[in-house]
Design a protein that fits this description.
This is DUF559 domain-containing protein. This protein is an alpha+beta fold. Helices cover 47% and strands 17% of the residues. It has helices at residues 24-34, 37-49, 55-64, 71-80, 88-99, 148-164, 181-202; strands spanning 13-16, 19-22, 105-112, 118-126, 131-135, 168-172. The longest helix has 22 residues, at 181-202.
Amino acid sequence: MLVRRRVSDRAGYEFVDGIPVTTVLQTLLDIARDCPLAFSVAALDAAVRSSVVTVEQMRSFSEAHPVRTGTRKIVKVLENVDARRESVAESICAVRLVEHSIPGFEPQVDIRDGAGKHLGRTDFANRRAKVIAEFDGAGKYHLDGADPQVTFERERRREYALRNEGWLVFRVRWSDLFSADLFLRIGESVRRRLVMDDSRREA
């Protein structure tokens, strides 16, 4: 357990059943101030996604109650919050892409083939490089009591269709989120494909 002693003004706490506790805004900004970027972004993504707070509310509260240390960390966290991410793993994956300076990835991108047929929605996609990053959590194969084998086969067919349309698909496992190897490969693939795209445009 980590204990931090800080002075908080009245706007930073409230009483719940007679017990003083920090407000949601204060708690989230304390997390942004004290915790690693990936953990902080995951917590704030979840809060915004569930409509507990908005990024604008957090930014306004932070500006109205400046701190002596940690301001830059709070600003960086708020710059990286995105409610479109649907899980903790996706939030951490997004932060890893930023930390490895891999540009151009958007969350929850709908992909269609040349005829306009919907091929699927991906966790992350770089449209210009045509590179996809999908978090491969085991839980999705058991959603709503689905047969894991049927779900796996559907995922396999979807990935095959994406590859046929020229997309490069990376599967990200939980362990990959805490290792640089896969993200270095993703970054190199994006850079190589962007160079090829630039060459075609100049030809």
